[in-house]
Amino acid sequence: PLPYETFKFNSVGRNELKMKEDKKYLISVGRLVKRKGYDFLLDIIHELPKVNLIIVGDGPEKEHLEKRISELGLDKRVILAGNVSEEQKFQYLQNADIYVLSSVHEGFGIVLQEAMQVGLPIVSTDFGGQVDVIKDQENGYLIKYGDVESAKTVISKLLSDYELCKKMRQANMAKVEEY
Predict the structure, then answer these.
(1) Which of 123, 122, 124, 114 is nearest to 93 (CA)?
(2) How far is the first Cα of the chain from the last one, in angstroms, to the nearest whole number?
(3) 129 vs 112: CA distance, rounded Å
(4) What angle do CA 92, 75, 71 make, to 5 degrees?
(5) Which one of 5, 134, 152, 154 is separated from 126 by 20 to 30 angstroms, measured CA to CA?
(6) DSSP string, 107-153
């Protein structure tokens, strides 16, 4: 894993980011490209009717994703935030409930360390550098790419189990210190 420098940012509430106080939010950060697996992530959200999603980033897949969001009827639950400042990225991370890495393959995602800094539990695909950072059921969950059912199960479990989330939050905040 790469060395990590903690990013200092101003905390804001959900209202300032146009997020609803009473909703649960998954978040993912990265370029909008096929290998990031955002279609898979939209399939997961489609199966979790009470959950919203924020995707931070921009790229060539933006139009495709907008169309897919519309086809799935997710317009009111998915926010494509586009490119935002580092500060705003951290504000979104801090206000979300779970970080999801849905990539087909990932080298080493610095964004996982960023999610850990703010104490987010992580649900991640199990192929690539993320397996060095995520210990299954300790600071997150590892799932197979394309396995909507198991993703839905672990996300539902995290959203309904406050103690489990708290344990993973503490594990991630401690683990990021190692970098």
Answers:
(1) 114
(2) 7
(3) 10
(4) 130
(5) 5
(6) S--HHHHHHHHTT--EEEESSBGGGGT--BTTTEEEE-TT-HHHHHH
8 has pLDDT over 60: yes
- Is residue 1 scored above 60 in pLDDT? no
Cβ neighbours around 125 below 10 Å, total: 24
pLDDT band at 145 (very low <50, low <70, confident <90, very high): very high
What number is the average pLDDT over the span 83-95? 97
Q: Check: CB of residue 24 under 8 Å from CB of residue 51.
A: yes
Q: Where are the beta strands (DSSP E) in the chain?
A: 24-29, 51-56, 78-82, 98-101, 122-125, 140-143
What residue has token string 């990013």?
7
pLDDT at 178: 82
- Other Cβ atoms less than 10 A from the Cβ of 13: the count is 11
Q: What is the mean pLDDT of the chain?
A: 94
In whole angstroms, give the CA distance from residue 104 to residue 127.
7
Distance of CA 8 to the CA centre of its chain: 20
C-alpha distances (whole Å) from 29 to each of 22, 134, 164, 173 are 22, 17, 23, 18
Give the 3-state secondary structure of residue 25.
strand
